[in-house]
Amino acid sequence: MKNLTTALKIAPAFLLASTIMHAQAQVQDSSTKEKNIEEVVLIGYGKQKKTDLTGSITALSTEDFNKGAITTAEGLINGRAPGVVITQSGTPGNEATIRIRGGSSLNASNDPLLVVDGLPLDGVSLATINPNDIESFSILKDAASTAIYGSRGSNGVILVTTKKGSKRLRISLNAFTTVNTLAKKIDVYSPDQFRQLINQYVPSKVGMLGNSNTDWQDEIFRTSVTSDINASVSGSLFNEVPARLSLSNMDNSGLLMTSRFRRSAANFALSPSFFDDYLKFNITGTYSYTFQNKASEDAIRNAISYDPTQAVYDPNSPYGGYTEWIGQGTNRPVGVSNPVSLLKNRHDVQNFKRFLGNINMEYKFHFLPDLKVILNAGLDSKELDGHVVVNKNSRSGYFAVNNVYDFYGEDSYSDESILNKNANVQLNYTKAFGKLNVDVMGGYEYQNYHKVSSASGNTLLYTLDPTNNFYNPDSKPDLNLQAFFGRLNLGFDNKYLLTVNYRRDGSSRFSKNNRWGNFGGVAAAWRISEENFLKSNSTISDLKLRASVGKTGQQDIGVYRYDYFKTYNVSTTLYYQFGNQFYEIAKPNGYNENLKWEESVKYNLGLDFGLLNNRIKGTVDFYLADTKDLLSIVPEGPLENLRIIGPKNIGKLQSRGIDLGLDVKAIQKENFTLNFNYNLSYNKIEIKELEVNGIDKGGVGLGGFVQTFREGYSPYAYWVYQQVYDSNGMPIEGAYVDRNGDGEITSADKYNYKKPQPDVTMGLMTNMTFGKNWDFSMAWRASLGNYVYDQISADRSHLNHINNTVDGTINNAPVDFNNTHFSTANKMSDYYLKNGSFLKLDNLTVGYTFNKFITNTSSLRLYAAAQNVLIITKYKNLDPEVFNNGIDNSIYPRARMFTLGVNVNF
To answer: CB 415: neighbour CB atoms within 10 A?
Structure first.
């Protein structure tokens, strides 16, 4: 691993040096300087030329996207932007976790704000969007850029632009088929090894061993197929209106037996203009339907533990014909459930319908073309219904009702309806006064969020247990957000640039005293390359220094929408007698009138550079962010706010780091091109102040916690005992270092050892074309310094798990038991903290294009690809890239995929 780390550190310098030598040779052969096309970048409520940007913004378009079998929108940019870490789920249809510069909160949302075609969405909800419909991403990272979004800009902003129509008729078809395979399994004892284990450690239970040889992971996982087809047509309606329509269908069976995700989507875009383009419209809309069969992921955990000497099926079993452990002297099932039964006898189906649409109108006043009014109106409508059915003859369907065990099964329903409406109006004035360019914008925004949900409970038990099974509608008041915002852009002599943002936000989440907040930012830039002393420089073609400071906010604390309200629960069974009258007793609910939004002040210093006629382009940013009034769900004091737990503003957090991005056109020949994109990010997050220092986090069962919120440490830093080892390097059970020297081991001896967040993340993409027709792409990612808590082993690699005396069963275990021989669980030992650093080859793609396939403007591209190709890591379980803040209690494995695809354009 040391050699790997060293290689990763050397790679950027080697890449840069070799490219400069190649590029200098080619530039010297060129007699004229290449003219650069001005790239326009979305900046939030507007656009700006990339050369005029003052903030830290990463723009990615179709040529920058990951190649191959990309079925999710976030998959297009995973590893492509410095400071952006995307953790994709192996579960088909599940959303990814996206963090920009580590996030800014403890327990409130750390998700960036997602804006699609001008419409701000709730949460990171990209799973329903067809990646083939996306034209570009613009990622706003510093506060001076995100302050225009005020109370929602603390964790960064991702602006997504979908593809628009064209005046020329274009038809495109993209289709691929992928074979999904299991890349790795958890290393547990084989059937023969397990028999030896029981013979050695639990000889009294040898008679419980079966005669089968079952690999339970092989039984629940399968090789599956993903198919994806997308067709689009763009052109002019009535010879005047640019339009585009796309239709797509994706079907992913998933690796886990019975799991499935299907997405069908239609996207349209219209761009009519009138009065010589004085009046322009952009109308976009996406309708999607997704179907998800959510296979029980408990089966993955059970497959690690279930006895490998038992058969999958037992014709004598009362539980649907599946092998199950049955307690002695009773018919009740005990121990770990049969993982195959868990999958085959439970169906958890969700249907999700979504319409996402936006209308943008821009009008330039005829009497003053420099002044224009912009109107945006959009909505995001979601309808979700779920249905869970459990076979009553299965173990999952056999349980107690009023202390009576029987085969009941389950039939339950849930539904959710969400309507997110947004409208904003802007006035924009742009004018050049000699060398001074002025761009002024001001506006007002209104957003309303309406949600209604319900859950039925188990309808099969309504008559048997009506108290615990009921139809439970949940309709909370709407959330409302209103804002006034403005921005001033000044540019003088194409060299000196200034941006000032301001937003006044009001949120219905907070009381009148804390409802409104002021947010803003200032950014300045100096285009040094436009100064006379650099204009004729043949090496430095672009050089710009940037600096910014801004304040943003955070107001999302999950289900606590109106926590300042004083509300009451009225009893239907308890009464108070006053004279001859009986009054229902009402109990006050908890509330917090002092709750307010988090505020983050962020500083950024950046340098953009271009070398050798911009053959090498790069950006480097240094940033510091201080967040105060952290929102968190914490225990409250006796009688405080009339509850035990609730949301409070509890402290301060600091994040600092460095982002580096490089784009290198290493070789640009007629028959051969070679381009590199490299990014590196360093990030450190530290809790600076807490109302109560030392909040337990990372519960691992039996009252044990292995993480903490503590001043001076990263969020979710590991807080464990220091393991003592013998002369052979074996951990000594229950032996920990007495760190405070008081002669006994107590919780005061726990210490911080490592953290789940990486110190450094990297991405490297290589694009190559050769022979005019061949293309090749390769994408790597790396993460250094992140540690994982191996709960898979901590829960299972001890004798009390193998010989479970509580339920009288025997269970398999990870082979890590060979390294410990622990008799009991030692979950709070630092032994279970493992180095999760990794280097991943995410994608390999090779393609061949037949030009002038049918007509002179048509083309046919055939390509083959592999995803999740290689992982180099010390971590022994499935994958070091885990959710749940670094605790690995088994994950849905990410598939290794092999793809064949075709792309046809007319």
So the answer is: 16
Residues counted in the chain: 906
SS3 13: helix
Q: How far is CA 672 from the centre of its chain?
A: 36
- Tell me whether residue 590 is exposed, middle or buried, using C-beta atoms within 10 angstroms of its C-beta: 0 to 12, 13 to 18, 19 or more: middle
The whole-number pLDDT of residue 495 equals 94
- Dihedral angle computed from the Cα positions of residues 305, 310, 311 and 312, in that order, rounded to the nearest 10 degrees: -20
pLDDT, residue 357, reads 94
Handedness of CA 123, 127, 133, 136 (dihedral sign): positive
DSSP string, 389-428: EE-TTSSTTEEEETTEEEE--EEEEEEEEEEEEEEEEEEE
Give residues with Cβ within 8 angstroms of 443, minimum separation 6: 45, 374, 424, 425, 426, 427, 484, 485, 486
Distance of CA 225 to the CA centre of its chain: 24
* 899 touches 867 (CB < 8 A): yes
**Which DSSP helix (H) or strand (E) runs through 77?**
none
3-state secondary structure of 808: coil
Question: pLDDT at position 570, please?
Answer: 66
The token pair that represents 695 in the structure block: 């909040």
pTM comes to 0.90
Bridge pairing between strands 157-162 and 113-116:
parallel
Cα separation, 305 vs 310, in Å, equals: 12
Instruction: Please give the mean pLDDT across all residues of the chain.
Output: 90
Computed on alpha carbons and rounded to an integer, the radius of gyration of the chain in Å comes to 30
For residue 131, the one-letter residue type is P
Per-residue pLDDT tens digits for 65-113: 998 889 899 999 999 999 999 999 999 989 899 999 999 888 888 999 9
Q: Which of 555, 548, 717 is nearest to 627 (CA)?
A: 555
Strand 787-790 relative to strand 887-888: parallel, antiparallel, unpaired?
parallel
How far apart, in whole angstroms, are the C-alpha atoms of residue 264 and residue 412? Answer: 26
Beta bridge partners of 638: none
Beta strand 279-293 with 346-365: parallel, antiparallel or unpaired? antiparallel
Q: Which residues pair with 783 in a beta bridge?
A: 761, 838
Q: How many CA atoms lie within 13 A of 689 on its CB side?
A: 10
The DSSP call for residue 34 is P
Q: Write the Ramachandran bin of 712: left for phi over 0, alpha for psi from -120 to 50, otherwise beta.
A: left
CB-based contacts of 176: which residues, under 8 Å, 6+ apart? 69, 227, 228, 863, 865, 899, 900, 901, 902
Q: Please give the sequence-ordered ranges of beta strands (E in DSSP) within 532-644, or none if there are none.
A: 540-554, 568-578, 581-588, 598-611, 616-628, 631-635
Residue 476's CB is within 10 A of a number of other CB atoms, namely 13
Integer Cα distance of 647 and 635 in angstroms: 9
Q: How far apart are CA 260 and CA 291, in angstroms?
A: 8
Alpha carbons 847 and 369: distance in angstroms, whole number? 47
Q: Are strands 859-873 and 838-851 parallel, antiparallel or unpaired?
A: antiparallel
Q: Quick check: helix, strand or coil at residue 206?
A: helix
Only one residue has tokens 């001005």, namely 38
Distance, CA of 863 to chain centre: 28
Q: Please report, for the chain, how many H helices and E strands are present, in that order.
A: 10, 50
> What does the alpha-carbon distance between residue 77 and residue 61 come to, in Å, rounded to a whole number?
9
* Helix (H/G/I), strand (E/B), else coil: 340: helix
pLDDT value for 640:
59
pLDDT tens-digit series, residues 520-575:
999 999 999 999 998 888 899 999 999 999 999 887 766 556 666 666 666 656 66
pLDDT of residue 512: 86
Residue percentage of the chain with pLDDT more than 90: 74
Place of tokens 């450190």: 684
Tokens representing 851 are: 């030009």
The low-confidence residues of the chain, meaning pLDDT below 70, are: 1-38, 124, 469-472, 557-577, 587-588, 590, 635-644
Q: Are 164 and 282 in contact (CB under 8 A)?
A: yes
